[in-house]
Amino acid sequence: MLAIRLPATIEKRLDRLAKRTGRTKTYYARQAILEHLADLEAVYLAERRLEAIRSGRTKTIPIEKVMRRYGMGD
């Protein structure tokens, strides 16, 4: 179970959309979360990885080395 407070303007938009389409506000809130959750996860993980690289906890591999490894270099 999840309860969230939305700004009044967003609540109105959501309510208007639900009334116009015959769906519930919960339906649209769920759809929005499902659609964007993967993006949020990717951003969070990328930020953590960047922190690890900058702090030296994670090493990078030059793209040229990766390309050679997979036969994609000259």
Describe the 3D structure.
This protein is an all-alpha fold. It has one domain (8-69). The protein has helices at 8-21, 25-55, 63-69. Helix 1 packs across helix 2. The longest helix has 31 residues, at 25-55. The chain is elongated and about 60 Å long. The N and C termini lie far apart (56 Å).
Structural class per helix/strand content?
mainly alpha
Helix amount, in percent? over 70%
Mean pLDDT: 93
Q: Radius of gyration over alpha carbons?
A: 22 Å
Regions with little confidence, pLDDT below 50 for 5+ residues: none
The tally of structural domains comes to 1
What percent of residues are in strands?
A: under 5%
Number of β-strand runs: 0
Question: Main sheet, how many strands, which sense, barrel?
Answer: none
Instruction: Specify the number of helices.
Output: 3
Dominant shape? elongated
Distance between the termini: 56 Å
Order of helices and strands: HHH
Oligomeric category: single chain
